[in-house]
Write a structure and sequence with these properties.
The protein is 36% helix and 4% strand. The chain is mainly alpha-helical. The protein is globular and about 90 Å long.
Length: 269
């Protein structure tokens, strides 16, 4: 019969090992995006023109101070399937921005104070970035680099729902034991829960909507997420119409082919 030998650790040693073990780490995987209804979702979804224009207002008055919109030109605001601005409105919007100017008649790009020469933007110009370069962007945002928003919906898992969740997720309370990093802000919908974007980035009445819509945080987040969805996929409505037309064509073609098949083989034995 085999004897089983047990080794007993002294109580002091066992307690020391227990105290030395690392504390249970908090799982900081971002929460799933919130479920939100967007008009453009689904095979027959379209962009809400009112939401697009309100979302552009939120971007222009709030988000554009830190975030660029590199892939969108002013003229796109008047394109079919977009926010629906008229040509005159697009020109007026563009003229409110300054972009780098071409060399003057002396071939100079800078004035006598070393400041870059600029001009009023035209409809063919793209939205100018809020900072001259990445270094300037980080210097003005505590080392964080604000991402370009023109493709953010496509670039982030969860799309518009992710953007909405981030913008409305700052009111959550950190769980006990979680340390918010200095210079960061708690947001459970961001991976790691520490985010560089200030928790005051979007507030109630951050804008005054021209159509009278109450400007709550939820409304502003919904509208700007809609606008950024369009910026990421400005041809969505055209693509859906084309896809629907292709399906109809294929159904008709299938019917014709089946009828031809029946006629050709009806007398076959």
């Amino acid at each position: 019969m085999r004897n089983t030998m047990r080794i007993a650790l002294p109580v002091g040693v066992a307690l020391g090992l227990l105290l030395a073990a690392p504390a249970m780490a908090i799982d900081t995987v971002r929460l799933p995006p919130k479920a939100v209804d967007f008009s453009f979702e689904g095979p027959f979804g379209t962009y809400d023109r009112g939401a697009l224009q309100r979302g552009f207002q939120v971007y222009k008055e709030v988000c554009s101070t830190c975030h660029s919109l590199d892939h969108i030109a002013f003229r796109n605001l008047g394109d079919e399937g977009g926010p629906g601005y008229s040509e005159a409105q697009v020109k007026a919007i563009a003229m409110g921005y300054k972009v780098p100017a071409d060399p003057n008649d002396k071939g100079e790009l800078f004035d006598d104070k070393g400041i870059r020469l600029t001009r009023a933007a035209g409809t063919a110009d793209y939205f100018p970035a809020p900072f001259a370069n990445e270094e300037a962007a980080r210097a003005n945002n505590s080392g964080a680099l604000p991402p370009d928003l023109s493709m953010i919906v496509k670039a982030r898992e969860g799309g518009a729902h992710y953007v909405y969740s981030i913008l409305t997720g700052f009111h959550e309370t950190p769980p006990p034991g979680f340390k918010v990093t200095d210079g960061k802000y708690f947001n459970p919908y961001f991976e790691g829960w520490n985010i560089g974007m200030p928790n005051t980035a979007l507030t109630d009445k951050a804008v005054t909507y021209s159509d009278g819509t109450p400007a709550t945080i939820a409304q502003e987040a919904h509208d700007v997420a809609t606008f950024l969805s369009w910026a990421s996929d400005p041809k969505m409505e055209e693509r859906k119409r084309m896809g629907f037309g292709v399906i109809i064509f294929l159904l008709i073609l299938s019917g014709i082919l089946f009828a031809a098949y029946r006629k050709v083989w009806k007398d076959a034995h």
